[in-house]
Specification:
It is a single chain. The chain has 325 residues and is an alpha/beta fold. The protein folds into two domains: 2-132 and 298-309, NAD(P)-binding Rossmann-like Domain (Rossmann fold); 135-291, Dihydrodipicolinate Reductase, domain 2. 26% of the residues lie in helices and 22% in strands. The protein has nine helices and 15 strands. It has a seven-stranded mixed β-sheet. The protein has a six-stranded parallel β-sheet with strand order 2-1-3-4-8-7, covered by helices on one side. The longest helix has 15 residues, at 135-149. The radius of gyration is 19 Å and the shape is globular.
């Protein structure tokens, strides 16, 4: 058994992570750190865990844990690691955007590896420090990486994607209140979302001469969780050729699947899956991608990365079922 610590334990991603690790056969939760909730029961914040976990939040840290998950707000992981020194054997998985870009990946002799298993599984297996991908970035990259791998992203990519309310985190703002979100729909950060940097980085890793535009319009949906993305770009080949390209690229992927039927959000919510669907419209290839933003887009992918780092079965603790009704 390995011991796990969680930093920033009160948010949505930490809640999902706790749920997954409680039932992971190879992991025991050593501590869940939250200065604002220190001494309170974890189940008082994550209330579905009443009767499942008897731990309290703490403001002290065990620096000898085997794996540390950072579930802090963006920009806070870097400062936390500058102030706290862990054992040389402690593996770290950061769920913020602090270390995802090449220019930011190193801090205090720690070099973080970008943790998208479908892009670089072997590097993750040999890593000690992982930068977990963003939720939009995961859904979008999985939709286009097979084309980049074949050097077939030759034109601009157009993306329209919608995320649920949990994508904004637990902090309240004008656009997260129920009265604003309910029966509502809006876009935000058009063409300049923070996940574009890591998307460009991964595409250029596979297709080094890619220089087209990635036009991304993120939207807020009036549902709790999930991401549904539609992307299109010019593609000279046939639908059959595109299908072969995708099935070959994902032939060894444990959680990413190409569907012959049109896909929808309920197929993936509460799972670690990404489902993809392809359609050809004249000279354009339409790619649909859907994930659960808190699982494959955050905590589920973090556990998937942990499994790879510790040589566990990649799917261990992630046999989750969608709730259809």
């Amino acid at each position: 058994m390995i011991k796990a610590g969680i930093i920033g334990g009160a948010g949505y991603t930490a809640g999902e992570l706790i749920r997954l690790l409680i039932f992971h056969p190879n992991v025991v939760i050593d501590f869940v750190y939250s200065t604002s909730n220190a001494g309170n029961k974890i189940s008082a914040i994550h209330q579905d865990l009443i009767g499942t976990i008897d731990l309290n939040f703490t403001d002290t840290i065990n620096t000898e844990v085997d794996v540390l998950f950072l579930c802090l707000g963006h920009g806070n992981s870097k400062s936390f690691l500058e102030k706290n020194i862990f054992s040389k054997t402690t593996k770290i998985i950061d769920l913020s955007n602090d270390f995802r870009l090449e220019k930011d990946k190193t801090i205090a002799h720690k070099t973080f590896v970008y943790g998208l298993p479908e892009l670089q599984k072997e590097q993750i297996q040999n890593a000690n420090f992982i930068a977990n991908p963003g939720c939009f970035a995961t859904a979008i990259q999985l939709a286009i990486l097979p084309l980049a791998n074949a050097n077939l992203l030759e034109n601009d990519i157009h993306i329209n994607a919608v995320t649920g309310a949990t994508g904004a985190g637990t902090s309240l703002s004008k656009t997260t209140h129920f009265t604003w979100r309910d029966n509502n729909f809006s876009h935000y950060k058009a063409f300049e979302h923070q996940h574009l940097g890591e998307i460009h980085q991964s595409v250029n890793q596979l297709q080094k001469k890619f220089n087209a535009e990635i036009n991304f319009i993120p939207n807020r949906g009036n549902f709790s969780r999930g991401i549904f993305a539609t992307l299109y770009t010019e593609f000279k080949g046939s639908l059959e050729e595109a299908t072969l390209l995708y099935t070959d690229y994902y032939k060894d992927a444990k959680f990413t699947f190409l569907s012959e039927e049109e896909i929808h959000l309920k197929q993936v919510v509460n799972t670690n899956k990404c489902l993809l669907h392809l359609q050809k419209h004249k000279n354009k290839l339409l790619i649909t991608s859907t994930i659960d933003n808190l699982l494959k887009g955050a905590s589920g992918q973090a556990v998937q990365n942990m499994n790879l780092m510790f040589d566990f079965e990649e799917t261990e603790g992630l046999h989750l079922k969608a709730n259809f009704f």
